[in-house]
Structure formats: structure tokens, C-alpha cells
Design brief:
Elements: E1 17-19, E2 42-44, H1 51-54, E3 88-90, E4 98-100, E5 108-111, E6 116-119, E7 128-132, E8 136-137, E9 143-147, E10 155-157, E11 167-175, E12 181-184, E13 190-194, E14 199-206, E15 213-217, E16 222-229, E17 245-247, E18 250-252, E19 257-263, E20 269-275, E21 280-281, E22 285-288, E23 294-301, E24 304-311, E25 314-323, E26 326-329, E27 333-336, E28 343-349, E29 355-360, E30 364-373, E31 376-379, E32 383-386, E33 396-401, E34 404-409, E35 414-421, E36 424-427, E37 431-432, E38 443-445, E39 450-456, E40 462-470, E41 473-478, E42 493-497, E43 500-505, E44 508-515, E45 519-522, E46 526-527, E47 536-537, E48 543-547, E49 552-557, E50 564-570, E51 594-600, E52 605-611, E53 614-620, E54 628-630, E55 635-641, E56 649-656
Parallel strand pairs: 1-2, 7-9, 8-10, 9-11, 10-12, 17-23
Antiparallel strand pairs: 3-4, 5-6, 11-14, 12-13, 14-15, 16-56, 18-19, 19-20, 20-21, 20-22, 23-24, 24-25, 25-26, 25-27, 28-29, 29-30, 30-31, 30-32, 33-34, 34-35, 35-36, 35-37, 38-39, 39-40, 40-41, 42-43, 43-44, 44-45, 44-46, 47-48, 48-49, 49-50, 51-52, 52-53, 53-54, 55-56
Length: 657
């Protein structure tokens, strides 16, 4: 290679190479080599110094002031210009890094299977002890709550589950009172009750939502959330003392409020409103200052009800408006009934509009139409139907559907349909059922145009059938004889669908299936052990529960055209079981459809049995009634009195999980 002088220029061509393999430049060249322009050749060698190519050493690139903007993650940076003091950095792919704050004292970094969170550590037991007397919202700190409420309705609300980790022993609640304590999740959904002088332990099994999934040991699924004992009214309407009957003594106004009927010892009518959202009862308000014989109430809307009543032949209907828990009674409409009432079948709301008060005398049945516009109540012309055989309270019944009212006079072996428009009632023709009913009569709605009914002849034969409506014209489809003896009772039938009804005659259970325009057919009945005695068939969908006088609970599968046994459970005594019932199923039961709770209400003890959406209350002590209450929602109310000469009207609000 010939000698190069300082500032010499070497021309390059594509693919040319420069080799810097010498420790010094030859022939005395000094000052380094400057390369200008660009080329696509190869620089190779073992002693090349990049600093000599651009006159900048590596310290230039190590100086942050020589770099502008944020260095992205893909180029080895963090993608952010600020890191909060003491936060933990989490990877985020090619996006800027994430951070997790330290959280509260004692928190640890915990994986939820997807990412990391700063949470309270599990285990170690509960060290935080809190006392309370009213509504309480727990925090994420594991806590022992010792609560002493002064009334029913007190609620303990669990924290946002996403602020916690799953695990056992998150909370314990000790109830140090005679009142039930409600337990709800962070969304306000009721999870159960803590019984009087009892405790529960709460575990968290899913923390993916604020509501979470909680497991509560020893919790009651049925409890009392409100109790009111009147200081004005001495008895309720379902006891003796002059009041023949009262329909719908409790009307649910909305999700939180209900309207209650009460009376005093002279049968003077009062009303009161309960608001569960504030756990308060309004003032008892006089509705009618007369000795009432029968009364009923229907809901108009969430802030209005209409009350109808008769004192002997003096009939009155009045609109009541409600604001919060305050009742305002408006001007009543009045009329005189055609005859003294011997039987009362109810004050009913007709779905298409209007209301009807149904009653009878010794020879006739009467339908009194009622309507309301604003706060003005009106009464139409009373319809009178005369019968050859007198209708009775147990052997006659009524149902409503669309704009129709269907009346079944069992002793007369006839059905009749009426239509209602405003306050005008139009009667259809009587239609014979084919069999006289001497036992208790059932009329159950299957659809707006089909109704199940029963009949029992004077000779003791039992029948069931379907009445099909077209306008006010009735077509009857009657079954063959079921038994030579035995009859149905009021609550011995349950509508499964618009074409199928489960029923009981004596100790025989069966299913009626209706084919429109064709007729009815019966399945193969089941009877005998383990049922025994006379059972009640009650609510269900694909299954039913039979309850007999020997306290045997039988679950029957009615999903097909014939019933079949599924399982049964026998209680220990007529007062029903008192142990092992609070947290789950009694020992030996084979189904989750039966739930039993014991409720202590001071002088009386109630056994509350919940089967799907049905509640059965049986009691010992000085309290009246053994109601079977269908529950369409998760709560219901029940009025009864406290018993004895000094008894007071009592209202309980129950909730079911």
C-alpha cells in the first residue's frame, strides 16, 4: 500500500473494504482517519475505534441530557418519566410500566391469578374487635363484630370484596340480642340472618366483583326483618270477635313499603304503612269508624290503594293515597247491599281494570263493581245471581282473569262467568259442571281462559275438571270418577302449567292434563306410605311437596303426566323440629328443596318452613294461625295477634334467602 498523506482522499466503490488492523498508521500518518459521505462496504478489523470515526466518545451517550423525549419500552426504557415513590413496578408488555401502591399497613403483594394487588394478608386470626347497636358497614380488615341491635331490621353490610383476598375466617358476627340481624353483601343483597344470641363466621370464596361470593356458616335463611305491635288495635282480622273475613290484609306497595290492615276490639278499621328502607312504621290511621263485618284492599299503584268494606248491609269503598308512610283517606262512596252478607269471597282486582266485591246471602251471590279515578271512588250496579242451592263459603269460590270473573257454586253444580267494563257487570249463562260439590270447592286459574275445578257428589265420588271460557260462554271438561269417596280441600291443588294441575284426593296424588278442545286425562296416582294421612300439595315447578298431619314431608316429581316419589323427611313431633335445622337440611333429607328455620318471637316459637317459594308457619304458644304463604318475591308479611285478653295486633316482616 502506498503512503497516504494527511487529508488524502480515498475513493470507494460498492463492496470496497477498509482494513484497520494496524496499531498505528503507516509511514507516519497521524491525527486519525476521518471518513465522510457514505458507503455500503464493510468496515473490518481488530483495532478499529468508533470514537475516532465521529470524534464523540461513549460518555456522550451516557449523558441523559443528550437524549430528548421518553425512551420506549421497546428501546430499553420504561415508557414513563415518573415513578411514584415506594410503588412496585409491574410489567405491561410494550406499553409503559404499571405500578402498585403499598396500600394499608401490613398489606402484602398478592396474586389474584392475573395480576398483583396490595391486600390484607390472609390468616393470622381476627384481631380487630368492633361493637355496634345499629346498621354497620364492615371494612376490609378482618373483624369480630359484637352487635346489640334494639329492634328488628338492623343490617350488617360486608365490604367491597375486590379489596380483599379469598380465604376463611374474614369476619365473625356475634348477635347479643333477641332480634334477628340481617347480613348483606356490598351490593345490598340479603345473604341471611344471625339468630338471637348466636354467631356466624363469614368466608370469602370469590373476590372478582364488589359483591363477592361469601359463605356464611350457621346463618338463618329465613328471618324477621321488622316487627310492630300495635298500641291502638287489639286484634287482627283473622281471629274471632265479629270480623267474618278480611282479604289481602297486607299489600306490597313497592320494593320497600307495604300497607297493613288492623282493627280494634269493636271492629273499627285502621291502616298503617311500613317502610323497610328506613325500618319505620307510620301512624295508625282510621279508615272507617264503623263495626266492620268484611273488608278487602287492592293496590291501585305504588302510592294508592282502594279499601272496600261492609258493616252489615252498609257498603263503602274509599281511595287511600300514601306518601312515604303517611296515609290520607279520601271521600268514600257508599251503597246499601241487597241482603245481609252470609259469605264473603273477597275484594278482587280485575286485570283489565276495575274491582269487584264478591259476597252472598242465603239464596243469592252478589258482585259489587268498584272503580277509582284519581282519588274519586265510584260504585256500579250490584249484580245479583239467584241459585237453587245456596252458595257457601267453603263450597263456592271465585277467580278473575283478563276482564272476566268466574264463580263456582259447588252445591248448585254450576259455573257462571261475568265480564266487567268500568263499573258495569254483564253476566253470562250458568253452565252445569255435571257433579254437585259437597266438599270444599277449588277454582284454580290455569290461564286467562282455562280454570281447574273439583266436584264431589253426594254419594261421595270425587271428580276434577277444566272450565274453558270463550267470552262468558263456558265449556266444561270433567274427568272420570277418581275415588268412590274423598274430596279435595282448599289447598290441595297446584297449577303446574296452563295445561297441567297436580291435586290430591284423600291420600291419593295425581296429575290432570288438559288438551284444548278435546278434554282432560288423569295420570297414574300414587298413594300410601310414606305419605299417610291427608297431605297438602303446594308450590313447585317440576316437583311438589306434600305435608301431612304426621309431619311427613314428601317431595313428588310432577314433571311427567303421572306423579312419582322423590324423597321424604319426617319431623320428630307436632311442634316440628327444633335442632339441626338452621344451617341446612335436616339429617336424612334427600333434597335441597326443603329449608327449615326456627324463629323465637318471645312468648311464642314459630317453625318456619320454606319450600322453594312457599313458607309454612307453625307455632306453639299463645299465637293464632298456621298459615301457608306463597312467596312470589323474597319477602312477605304476616299479621296475627299476641293472644290473650290483652292481645295486640302484631305485624312481622319476613325475608327469605
Amino acid at each position: 500500500m502506498s503512503a497516504l498523506r494527511t487529508d488524502s482522499v480515498i475513493p470507494f466503490t460498492s463492496g470496497a473494504a477498509i482494513y484497520f488492523g494496524l496499531s498505528s498508521f503507516p509511514e507516519g500518518i497521524s491525527g486519525g482517519l476521518n471518513v465522510s459521505g457514505s458507503f455500503t462496504g464493510t468496515l473490518s478489523g481488530t483495532a478499529s475505534n468508533a470514537d475516532l470515526l465521529d470524534n464523540l466518545d461513549s460518555s456522550y451517550f451516557r449523558n441523559a441530557s443528550n437524549i430528548t423525549g421518553l425512551l420506549s419500552v421497546s428501546n430499553g426504557g420504561l415508557g414513563t418519566g415518573t415513578l411514584t415513590v415506594n410503588n412496585v413496578i409491574l410489567g405491561n408488555g410494550t406499553s409503559p410500566v404499571q405500578t402498585v401502591a403499598p396500600g394499608s399497613s401490613g398489606s402484602v403483594l398478592t396474586s389474584d391469578g392475573t395480576t398483583w394487588k396490595s391486600t390484607t394478608p390472609a390468616g393470622g386470626g381476627i384481631t380487630n374487635i368492633v361493637t355496634a347497636t345499629g346498621n354497620t358497614t364492615l371494612t376490609s380488615t378482618p373483624t369480630l363484630l359484637r352487635i346489640t341491635p334494639i329492634n328488628y331490621g338492623t343490617t350488617v353490610k360486608l365490604p367491597d370484596a375486590t379489596t380483599m383476598t379469598v380465604g376463611a375466617g374474614k369476619f365473625e358476627i356475634e348477635n347479643l340480642s333477641t332480634f334477628h340481624v340481617r347480613v348483606a353483601n356490598n351490593s345490598g343483597t340479603l345473604l341471611g340472618f344471625v339468630d338471637a344470641y348466636d354467631s356466624v363466621q363469614i368466608d370469602l370464596t370469590d373476590a372478582s366483583t364488589s359483591a363477592g361470593v361469601w359463605t356464611i356458616g350457621n346463618v338463618m335463611r329465613l328471618g324477621i326483618s321488622a316487627l310492630s305491635v300495635s298500641t291502638t288495635t287489639t286484634e287482627n282480622f283473622v281471629t274471632a270477635g265479629g270480623m267474618t273475613n278480611l282479604t289481602s290484609p297486607i299489600v306490597e306497595l313497592d320494593a320497600h313499603r307495604c300497607f297493613l290492615f288492623r282493627r280494634d276490639s269493636a271492629n273499627i278499621l285502621y291502616g298503617v304503612v311500613y317502610d323497610q328502607s328506613t325500618n319505620t312504621f307510620g301512624s295508625e290511621t282510621l279508615i272507617r269508624n264503623a263495626p266492620i263485618t268484611n273488608a278487602g284492599v287492592c293496590k291501585v299503584d305504588s302510592n294508592k290503594v282502594i279499601v272496600a268494606s261492609n258493616a252489615t248491609r252498609d257498603f263503602q269503598a274509599v281511595t287511600i293515597t300514601i306518601s312515604g308512610t303517611t296515609i290520607t283517606v279520601h271521600t268514600a262512596a257508599t251503597t246499601t247491599l241487597p241482603a245481609t252478607t252470609t259469605n264473603f269471597y273477597g275484594f278482587l282486582k280485575v286485570p283489565s281494570g276495575g274491582y269487584v266485591y264478591v259476597h252472598s246471602s242465603a239464596t243469592s251471590s252478589y258482585l259489587t263493581p268498584v272503580d277509582v279515578s284519581g282519588t274519586t271512588t265510584s260504585i256500579g250496579t250490584i249484580n245479583t245471581t239467584t241459585w237453587t242451592n245456596n252458595p257457601t263459603v267453603n263450597q263456592s269460590c271465585v277467580q278473575v282473569a283478563a276482564d272476566k270473573i268466574l264463580f263456582h257454586n259447588g252445591p248448585d253444580a254450576n259455573l257462571i262467568a261475568y265480564s266487567l267494563s268500568g263499573t258495569t257487570i254483564t253476566a253470562g249463562s250458568k253452565t252445569a259442571t255435571g257433579q254437585t260439590t259437597n266438599g270444599t270447592t277449588i277454582l284454580a286459574k290455569m290461564s286467562d281462559t282455562t280454570f281447574f275445578f273439583n266436584a264431589q257428589t253426594s254419594a261421595g265420588g270425587s271428580y276434577v275438571g277444566v272450565a274453558s271460557l270463550s267470552g262468558t260462554t263456558i265449556t266444561v271438561y270433567l274427568s272420570t270418577a277418581i275415588l268412590s269417596g274423598g274430596s279435595l280441600a282448599t289447598n290441595y291443588a297446584h297449577v303446574i302449567s296452563s295445561t297441567k294441575v297436580a291435586f290430591n284426593v284423600a291420600s291419593s296424588n295425581n296429575i290432570l292434563t288438559y288438551t284444548a278442545g278435546v278434554g282432560v286425562s288423569l295420570g297414574t296416582p300414587i298413594s300410601g306410605a310414606p305419605i299417610g294421612g291427608v297431605p297438602y300439595l303446594i308450590r313447585g315447578s317440576s316437583s311438589e311437596l306434600a305435608i301431612n298431619s304426621a309431619n311427613i314431608f314428601v317431595l313428588i316429581d310432577v314433571s311427567g303426566s303421572s306423579p312419582t316419589f322423590k324423597s321424604f323427611f319426617q319431623c320428630s313431633s307436632s311442634t316440628l323440629p327444633t335442632t339441626e335445622l338452621k344451617t341446612g337440611l335436616p339429617s336424612g333429607i334427600l333434597t335441597s328443596d326443603l329449608r327449615v328455620d326456627t324463629i323465637d318471637v318471645g312468648t311464642s316459637v314459630q317453625r318456619a318452613f320454606s319450600i322453594k317459594s312457599l313458607i309454612i308457619l307453625r307455632q306453639t304458644g299463645n299465637v293464632n294461625g298456621t298459615p301457608i304463604i306463597p312467596v312470589e318475591t323474597s319477602s312477605f308479611g304476616w299479621i296475627n295477634n299476641t293472644g290473650g285478653a290483652a292481645g295486640r295486633s302484631m305485624y312481622r316482616k319476613y325475608e327469605l334467602v
